[in-house]
Amino acid sequence: MDAPSREPPAPLALTMGDPSGIGPEIAILAHRERGPRKLPPFAIYADLDLIRDRAAALRSTISIEPVSDAKEAARVFDWALPVVPIPLARTALPGEPDAANAAATILAIKRAVADVAAGLASAIVTNPIAKSVLYQAGFKHPGHTEYLQALANEFWPSAAAHSVMMICSPQLRVVPVTIHVPLKEVPLLLTTADIVDTTRIVAAALVRDFAIARPRLAIAGLNPHAGEDGALGTEDRDVILPGVEALRAEGLDVTGPHSADTLFHAAARSKYDAAIAMYHDQALIPVKTLAFDEGVNVTLGLPLVRTSPDHGTAFGIAGKGIASPLSLIAALQLAGEMSARRVRAAKP
To answer: Do residue 142 and residue 9 come from a single domain?
Structure first.
């Protein structure tokens, strides 16, 4: 008897990001690489004229096809870039962000999440936004990830979403416990409970979305040499170590706190599957040094898969034809892999 057929995941929902940034053009460049890179089908949620204008600026002969949702993208992806129309208020000029278009930027994100919730898309991949532009239009969330968490709680009210940012590259996966806060506030904000909760979420995601049966997790210290038993700061001993011990008691393969200056060389990286860092730059400097063009921002702890290129809007080079699509390509590939694993796990 033949094995039952497995329907592939629905296509991905790609948001346009800030329409004056590089998001629209790298989406066009990524679609051009769909065959060589074996990209999963995706639709970009964007203004049709915006995509046509950016394609013309790139001198691209790409076909552009409006579709009603990401699921319909599978029909046209092989020969055209599918676009779910999200009209802009004003024509977007490259490198000149306009708060008048903030509502469309936000709507693209919400519509993409809604389509994942409805089963019309398998995952969301987000192009970069400019928070300062959205704030001018009354955006109430600290950033992209916090907005996605709010949407997850709206569309999956029983999921109790708790977002955690992971930056992935072929060489390193790293997660900061505190993210966009001033460095002087990090010691005040770090708690044992946050370290434990973050690490649990990372461990579960590595099993579910990365197919790592027993994840090995290394937890960085905060102070030089992990505090030297209190001589260089007490947070490592009094806040981080109790978290490590609690996680070990739960049966997780966790080590630390490690001195961060020796945690990211090749031999050290071979001993863990992800590192938990205490603050933003402690996490992002090593991964961006190792793989600046290949890093992917992954939001863990949500009921949907979300990835993003690990760079900003790049207004300074928008429209100049020099933006690299490599990080977006990596984000699309990873979102496809993660959503496929979730589909397989859900099958009887």
So the answer is: yes
